[in-house]
């Protein structure tokens, strides 16, 4: 049986450990991969809602499960901090995942503008994509 991320360790992956870093470096942008993963979804969402410079990247997360993973949070409010990403090739395809996210988000109160931000606009802002000042 193949295990997910064989050989990887999550000993220091708890998003709560970033709280001190975020306070010490308020200008640092942090993108939490895989939405915090497992028992850390709530911690990741809390940090993202408390800090303007913390983002939740969605690779590896089934779009239909997002409302379940973040059930304690207002979905449209939290979605403002989402960055769409994929775990290609370990998912049904980028376009299929994007459509699934859009459908899930719409069912949970997100408008077209917010869905567009998640599917691309947030990444453009966070990663500086499309700006002339790139190296």
UniProtKB/TrEMBL annotation:
SUPFAM superfamilies linked to this entry: Metallo-dependent hydrolases (SSF51556)
Top-level taxonomic group: Bacteria
Protein name: Amidohydrolase family protein
Listed Pfam families: Amidohydro_2
Record domain Amidohydrolase-related: where: 12-128
